[in-house]
Specification:
48% helix; 7-stranded mixed β-sheet; alpha/beta; Arc Repressor Mutant, subunit A; 17 helices; two-stranded antiparallel ribbon; Rossmann fold
Length: 368
C-alpha cells in the first residue's frame, strides 16, 4: 500500500513545476498581505496614517510624539510599512514619509474609500478563529457577543460607503421618494446597527418619522445617544429580533423600509422579509442593500474582493445566524437567491441597481 506521503511525492513529480512554484509564490504573497492588513488596522486605529499624512518626512520619535504613542512600537510598525512599500524611508534610514497617493486610501479625511477601515475586519475575524474551528468540528455558530467591535467597524464602514451617498445616489433610486420624505412619511430601518444611516435621514427630513430595530443592545444604545446628540426628535431605536417582525401587530405601518447589509445574517431571513412585507404599506417601497454576488461560487471568481467577502461570511454572517439556530444563509447568498426570497416574501415588483461608486453591493428596490 502506498502511503499518503508517497502518493503526494508521486503526484508532485507529475505536476508542472512552474505552476507549483508560481502558486507557492502566490501563497507567500498572501501571507505578506495578511500581515500588512493587520498593520493597516493598527495604523488606522492608532491614527498613525492620519498623523503622517499631515507631516513632512519625520523620524520615528517625531511621529510617535505627534501621535501620542510609544516610540518603540511606532518604529517597528514603520518597519512593516516600509518593507510593505506603503511608507517611504530615506536611504539613511532616519526619516519616514507617507506619500499623498498612499494617504488617499488610508486616511480618515480621504476623498475616496479608506481601505484601512476594511482592514479592521481581518484582526476582528481572527479573534474568533478558535470558535470557528470549533464550529467546523462540532457545528453550531459563534454568537454576536463574541464580536466585540463588529458594530463599531460596520458603522465606520457604513459611514463612508452608505451615509455620504444617501442623498446623491441611494434615495434617487426610487423616483419621488425624496419628495415623500420631505412631506413626511414613516420609515423603518431593519437591522439598523449603530443607526448612522437612519440618523442622517432623520436630520435631512424632519417631517418624517424614523424607527430603527436591531438585536444588539449596545448598538441601539449608541444609535439612541447619537440621535439625542443630533437633536433628532423624529428618530427612535428599539432592541428587537427582526425575525419576529412578521408576528408584530403593526401591518402596513411604514411607507419606506430599509435594510443596509442586514438580511443575510438573520436567524430566519425569509421571516424577516415576510415581516418587512407585512409592515410595509401597500403604496410603500422596500429598499435593500446587500452584497453583490452570485448564488454560485464559480460565478464569483472574478469578484474584486471575493475572498474577503466569503471570509467575512464564513466567520461572521453565516455563523451568527447558526448560533441562533438559524439558516446560516451567509453574506454571499447572491442575487439569484435574494430575488427568490424577495418574491417568496410577497414582493412582485423588484428592480436591481448598481451604483458607480459601489462595486460591493446590489441595491434592490422592492414593491408589493
Amino acid at each position: 500500500m502506498t502511503s499518503n506521503a508517497e502518493a503526494l511525492t508521486y503526484d508532485i513529480a507529475e505536476t508542472d513545476q512552474a505552476v507549483v512554484e508560481a502558486f507557492g509564490d502566490r501563497m507567500v504573497e498572501t501571507l505578506n498581505s495578511g500581515a500588512l492588513a493587520l498593520m493597516l488596522s493598527v495604523g488606522h486605529r492608532t491614527g498613525l496614517f492620519d498623523t503622517m499624512a499631515e507631516m513632512p518626512a519625520a523620524t520615528s520619535v517625531q511621529i510617535a510624539e505627534k501621535a501620542g504613542l510609544d516610540e518603540r512600537y511606532v518604529r517597528e510598525w514603520l518597519g512593516a510599512m516600509t518593507v510593505g512599500n506603503i511608507v517611504e524611508n530615506d536611504p539613511a534610514g532616519k526619516t519616514y514619509y507617507l506619500p499623498r497617493e498612499h494617504a488617499a486610501s488610508l486616511c480618515r479625511k480621504s476623498p475616496t474609500d479608506n481601505i484601512a477601515v476594511f482592514a479592521q475586519y481581518i484582526p476582528l475575524l481572527g479573534s474568533v478563529e478558535d470558535d470557528i474551528v470549533h464550529c467546523f468540528r462540532n457545528g453550531g455558530g459563534v454568537p454576536y457577543e463574541r464580536f466585540e467591535r463588529f458594530h463599531e467597524v460596520m458603522a465606520e464602514d457604513s459611514g463612508q460607503s452608505v451615509v455620504p451617498a444617501l442623498e446623491t445616489d441611494i434615495l434617487p433610486l426610487v423616483p419621488g421618494l425624496i419628495e415623500r420624505l420631505e412631506r413626511g412619511i414613516r420609515v423603518l430601518d431593519v437591522g439598523c446597527g449603530r443607526g448612522r444611516a437612519l440618523n442622517k435621514l432623520a436630520r435631512l427630513f424632519p417631517n418624517s418619522q424614523f424607527t430603527g430595530y436591531d438585536i444588539s443592545g449596545d448598538a441601539v444604545r449608541y444609535a439612541s445617544q447619537e440621535a439625542r446628540a443630533l437633536g433628532n426628535d423624529n428618530a427612535s431605536f428599539e432592541i428587537f429580533d427582526v425575525s419576529d417582525l412578521e408576528h408584530s401587530d403593526r401591518p402596513g405601518t411604514y411607507q419606506l423600509i430599509t435594510t443596509f447589509d442586514a438580511v443575510h445574517d438573520q436567524r430566519d431571513p425569509l421571516a424577516v422579509l415576510r415581516g418587512i412585507r407585512k409592515a410595509l404599506a401597500d403604496d410603500g417601497v422596500y429598499l435593500a442593500q446587500d452584497i453583490k454576488g452570485s448564488s454560485h461560487h464559480h460565478s464569483d471568481r472574478d469578484h474584486p474582493i471575493g475572498p474577503l467577502l466569503y471570509t467575512v461570511s464564513c466567520m461572521h454572517c453565516m455563523t451568527v445566524s447558526l448560533a441562533q439556530g438559524g439558516e446560516g444563509l451567509g453574506a454571499m447568498w447572491g442575487r439569484e437567491k435574494a430575488l427568490e426570497y424577495f418574491r417568496e416574501a410577497g414582493f412582485r415588483n423588484i428592480d436591481v441597481h448598481e451604483l458607480a461608486h459601489d462595486f460591493q453591493n446590489y441595491w434592490y428596490v422592492c414593491r408589493p
